[in-house]
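Good morning N.,

You mentioned wanting to compare the apo and holo forms, so I went ahead and generated the holo version with guanosine-5'-triphosphate. This is what I fed in:
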Amino acid sequence: MSYQDDEESVPYDDHPNSFPKNFGYGQYEGEQDNSLSPTGEQKPRILLMGLRRSGKSSIQKVVFHKMSPNETLFLESTNKIVKDNINNSSFVQFQIWDFPGQIDFVDSAFDPHMIFGGCGALIFVIDVQDDYSDALLQLHSTVTQAYKTNSNIKFEVFIHKVDGFGDDSKMESQRNIHQTATESLIDAGYDQIHLSFHLTSIYDHSIFEAFSKVVQKLIPQLPALENLLDILNTNSAIEKSFLFDVVSKIYIATDSTPVDMQSYELCCDMIDVVIDVSYIYGVREDQEAAFDEKSSSLIKLNNGTVLYLREVNKFLALVCILREDNFEHKGIIDYNFLCFRKAIQQVFELRNKTNQMLNMCNVASSPIMNGNNLVDDNNEEILNDEDN
Ligand SMILES: Nc1nc2c(ncn2[C@@H]2O[C@H](COP(=O)(O)OP(=O)(O)OP(=O)(O)O)[C@@H](O)[C@H]2O)c(=O)[nH]1
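and this is what came out, ligand included:
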């Protein structure tokens, strides 16, 4: 068994809705692999696990590489661990490891510390269109093994391929899976393990919404971002606002009011429109990217609602939903937005400073921690040992 160090990215030109190279996630030919962020921080790792053909690679390709869902029909089975560096705005930096379905982690040949040690979240994908009893057994063994190694991991179960299911069947599958999985953990004495469940499909926005929630749990600054969005909403009569990572369309934060799926979908569609129109009409010869500080968009819906998008930085956009009447005070909204953008920059700067200081302290005082983080080289060794 070997692992592949970073994904062979699908060439961006192949996909009609793809971004140019300098706009995308992941690593491209010629770039260096680096499991550290530019500030020297160890990137959290997200593991994608589940049985064969459950849909792991499809999820990763659709969310982070703009592959259209239909193209995933032609994906070949993964036979190595595929690592993908997601290296975008400073809030969205992590590595995704896509595991082949046939790997058995309970097998003693694998060092669980190398796999689960630096892991932030473990996504276990269950194909709900198939008989999922084996998947539930594997979920149990994977989660318990991971928890024994690293109790800080967030466990996320994607009840996947729910397209074509009615609301009742979706709820029933979720109830069954939730009940069986949690009961088996409690019976085994692991009642402290918390599993989060998400109904997902690559054929609609549910996969982006679920990934948004996974990523948000890995952003320590989330409460600060939510607070800033709440303040912006209150002072600008905005009903709902999302801070989007433009490339993947996952939202890294929203205000404290509940998310309704329709609003999220509308905002995602708006991002698509803005990016597409920008790339058709907005790119000048001397420009690399069409999404810049002047990017903004306003869409009036026929129900008296307005969608308003503003660029926050190269990779982030704020998308707000508000009543048309309240948009009469556009000047105030724009002024408040500038204050919001400045505050976000300050959060970035503070985070970078803290990380640099922490790294200096770690280098000085904790060689063990560094050892634990140096997963790449060691991992290669360990997984190659399997071959021998
Ligand atoms: N209907 C439906 N099919 C899906 C969905 N996601 C993935 N698939 C299909 O499931 C099949 C397997 O997808 P893969 O992404 O290759 O599965 P995998 O888990 O990576 O498989 P291994 O690499 O063998 O472990 C493909 O034909 C996909 O098109 C979904 O949300 N709905």
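The pocket of guanosine-5'-triphosphate is lined by residues 50, 52-58, 72-73, 75, 77-78, 100-101, 160-161, 163, 201-203 (CB under 6 Å).

Happy to go through it together on a call whenever suits you.

Best,
F.
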